[in-house]
Write a structure and sequence with these properties.
about 260 residues, mainly alpha, two-stranded antiparallel ribbon, two-stranded antiparallel sheet, 15 helices, about 5% strand, binds heme C
């Protein structure tokens, strides 16, 4: 399949990276994008909405057009995809009926805040992540990709700028973990993602792992079961550790404590 590319923001480096990226997508991404759009938006399909192109959208949505130029997704937009999926319509679906109607909220257009199906057309593996046993309730419709990602702007990915950026994002909804605590756990400076998956996980509480390894990746020392100055093989600790009590079965406040330096033993 031959596809021409254009780079909306003109960055050559980005063009190179994106080409590789998009080549992979051609195989499985874009064709199914169309399939999914039509499946999920029977209205648009039945009434035969077609793709009109970004230039038409931005005549009315000037602000989104301006922001979108800087985004990761603008860099992967093909000049002419076989089935017309490109630019705004990769995420919003074919827009001809919306345009003919003069636009409007809920008028023949997909808003991914409510319907992430277009995202999954390309990010198939994310759908799998949200189906893992412990996950953020996006597929249940209780929250949205857009709660955590700014798709029009330059930083679609929360960690693109800084680790604090990710923590701030999580604190928007998880205030209990924010503190301030009298005794902070410095691990949080490395970001919530050192211990938690962000979309979904096999492990309860969306942890990266529920074994000692979660903590031992930082608290490891040659004379284990010594951890710092505490011998973890004394009678009070070892029998419990052997029985498989997780580190946080004893250190019950892994985010910080107002009560005990050893994080609330
Ligand atoms: C003729 C002007 C016009 C054109 C062209 C147009 N729109 Fe709209 N669109 C609107 C108006 C007006 C609204 C309602 C805005 C509001 O109420 O805040 C809207 C709303 C939207 C929404 C929000 C829908 C919702 O239910 O929340 C999206 C997404 C959208 N447009 C995308 C697009 C895309 C993509 C294109 C190009 C295919 C496009 N628009 C072309 C006028 C237009
Ligand atoms: C990578 C996917 C993606 C692309 C490409 C995209 N959008 Fe969006 N758009 C979204 C998401 C997600 C939302 C919901 C944002 C929210 O509610 O915070 C949205 C919301 C909107 C809205 C509703 C108002 C608003 O800002 O929340 C309009 C209008 C809109 N987009 C227009 C456009 C236009 C015009 C383009 C092309 C220049 C475009 N979008 C490209 C994902 C995308
Ligand atoms: C047409 C296919 C396509 C669609 C539709 C699409 N994406 Fe993407 N997305 C990509 C590709 C390819 C990349 C990698 C871009 C890069 O690295 O420059 C990407 C990158 C991302 C990133 C990481 C950006 C970064 O800064 O590293 C996020 C987050 C993302 N997409 C979320 C979404 C969400 C949410 C939606 C739906 C609203 C969506 N995408 C729709 C193809 C797509
Ligand atoms: C609770 C917040 C949250 C929600 C909801 C969310 N994401 Fe993410 N996503 C993140 C964070 C944080 C990262 C960065 C992870 C990192 O850098 O370790 C990320 C990274 C990504 C990436 C970049 C690739 C990667 O895995 O590093 C893609 C693509 C993506 N998300 C797509 C999506 C899609 C699609 C949805 C909705 C179906 C979604 N995300 C919903 C927080 C979220
Ligand atoms: C927009 C709000 C929102 C944001 C932002 C958000 N979350 Fe969540 N989080 C939720 C909701 C809603 C649940 C599901 C709670 C439930 O099912 O009771 C949840 C659940 C969780 C859980 C599992 C809790 C449990 O009791 O099982 C963890 C861990 C978590 N989120 C971590 C994070 C991390 C890390 C981030 C930042 C990358 C983040 N969240 C960003 C809303 C959010
Ligand atoms: C050092 C590892 C670590 C870091 C870093 C971390 N967490 Fe946790 N988190 C845990 C553990 C361990 C649990 C408890 C699991 C359990 O009890 O089953 C947990 C539980 C949670 C829960 C569920 C709360 C509850 O009462 O059940 C939420 C929400 C959460 N974390 C959010 C966050 C957020 C937001 C951040 C970043 C500010 C973060 N975590 C950073 C290890 C960590
Ligand atoms: C990203 C690295 C990192 C991870 C992962 C991590 N920690 Fe820590 N932790 C630290 C650092 C750094 C300190 C402060 C220096 C020290 O006491 O070793 C600390 C301090 C502590 C303390 C307080 C020690 C004291 O007396 O001051 C306890 C208890 C602790 N961590 C338990 C845990 C548990 C339980 C986990 C797993 C849920 C964990 N840590 C995961 C980096 C980490
Ligand atoms: C059965 C309970 C128990 C388990 C399980 C446990 N600990 Fe401890 N830990 C303790 C006790 C008790 C102390 C001493 C507290 C004090 O000094 O106040 C301690 C102290 C610590 C300290 C501070 C050491 C110091 O001397 O400053 C760290 C760090 C620590 N544990 C990490 C871990 C990690 C990592 C794991 C998992 C591999 C773990 N602990 C599992 C009970 C436990």
């Amino acid at each position: 399949m031959k596809i021409k590319y254009f780079i909306i923001n003109g960055a050559k480096k980005a063009a190179f990276g994106s080409l590789i990226c998009f080549a992979a997508l051609c195989a499985w991404g874009v064709p199914s994008a169309h399939a999914l759009v039509t499946a999920k938006a029977p209205d648009l399909a039945k009434k035969k909405a077609t793709y009109v192109g970004l230039d038409t959208c931005v005549t009315c949505h000037e602000k989104q057009g301006r922001e979108f130029k800087l985004s990761a997704h603008a860099r992967i937009s093909p000049a002419k995809a076989e089935d017309g999926v490109q630019g705004c319509e990769a995420c919003h679906g074919p827009g001809s009926l919306h345009v003919d109607a003069g636009g409007g909220k809920g008028v023949a257009i997909i808003n991914p805040r409510k319907d992430p199906s277009t995202c999954f057309a390309c990010h198939m593996e994310k759908k799998m992540e949200f189906r893992l046993p412990y996950h953020h309730p996006v597929l249940e419709g209780k929250m949205s990709c857009a709660d955590c990602h700014e798709l029009h702007g330059p930083d679609a990915k929360p960690s693109a700028t800084s680790m604090e950026g990710v923590n701030e994002l999580c604190f928007k909804c998880h205030k209990d973990q924010q503190g301030p605590f009298v005794f902070e756990h410095p691990a949080l400076r490395e970001g919530c993602t050192t211990c938690h998956k962000v979309h979904g996980s096999m492990a309860e509480k969306m942890l990266q792992s529920r074994t000692f390894n979660l903590c031992l990746k930082c608290h490891t020392q040659a004379n284990f079961p010594m951890i710092n100055r505490t011998n973890h093989s004394t009678s009070s600790t070892s029998s419990n550790m052997i029985r498989g009590v997780a580190c946080w079965g004893c250190h019950t406040k892994p985010h910080g404590s107002n009560f005990d330096k050893a994080l609330e033993y």
